[in-house]
Amino acid sequence: MTNIGYSSEYILVAERIKKRFGGLIAVDGATVKVRRKTITLLIGPNGSGKTTLLNVIAGFYKPDGGKVIFDGKDVTGWPPHKLYHLGMARTFQVPQPFYKLTVLENVLLAARGHPGESFAAPLQRSKWLPREEELVDKAFSILKLVGLIHLWDQPAGQLSGGQMKLLEIARVLMSGARMILMDEPIAGVNPTLAHEILQFLVKLRDQGITFFIIEHRLDIAMQYVDYVYAMARGRVIAEGKPEEVVSNPVVIDSYLGG
């Protein structure tokens, strides 16, 4: 059911989110709005509440207050698998592939409505085989897009750190996600690959996918994002265009002051 009062301009609205862990207030009334077909960046010093906010939006934590609206639907407290089927997917700072499966198999497992999920499918092979072939073709197309096509039959555990990040992006693309939440997509990779990953996100944005990302490597990330939110001590302290936020005295003070 569509919620009246939330502009269709935004695919995501996380409004006045609160999250506590015992006596610790990790997120204290933070509000972020993500426009469709943009790359929105969330920054802040360590301990500012960024990842907790991302985890609330992605359904890994239930908020103690506030609302999460995705594509006009109130999804507050929904678990990750329900959000996944709705078109929201999250990647992690440390990729989590199935290390013993091949790159192709990892991508195929991410497909929604895979015929292998049905108990009766093996008994009706003639019906699900065309769908299986369609998914394989789609998986190969995505692997070509992310530059991993030459490694399709390699175990995921043999990939480099940067290649695993590309594999994780391939998996969420296979799911048909319309919005991707990412926690430090270029952490731990060399500058050349970091630029390639972000350039790839820009291409996907131009194809209609929305990104909400956390990243600490601001010298690189700021070149590719459309809008920035800054957090400190659980609250949003600034928002705007990249150049506006990084030059904001409050943001600068929050980093220098820890």
Automatic annotation (TrEMBL):
It holds the Pfam family BCA_ABC_TP_C. InterPro entries: AAA+_ATPase (IPR003593), ABC_AA/LPS_Transport (IPR051120), ABC_transporter-like_ATP-bd (IPR003439), ABC_transporter-like_CS (IPR017871), BCA_ABC_TP_C (IPR032823), P-loop_NTPase (IPR027417). One of its GO terms (biological process) is amino acid transport. Keywords: Amino-acid transport, ATP-binding, Nucleotide-binding, Transport. Residues 12-258 form the ABC transporter domain. Signal peptide: none annotated. GO terms for molecular function: ATP binding; ATP hydrolysis activity. GO terms for cellular component: plasma membrane. The keyword Disulfide bond does not apply. CDD domains: ABC_Mj1267_LivG_branched (cd03219). The keyword Phosphoprotein does not apply. Probable component of a branched-chain amino-acid transport system. This is Probable branched-chain amino acid transport ATP-binding protein LivG. It comes from Pyrodictium delaneyi.
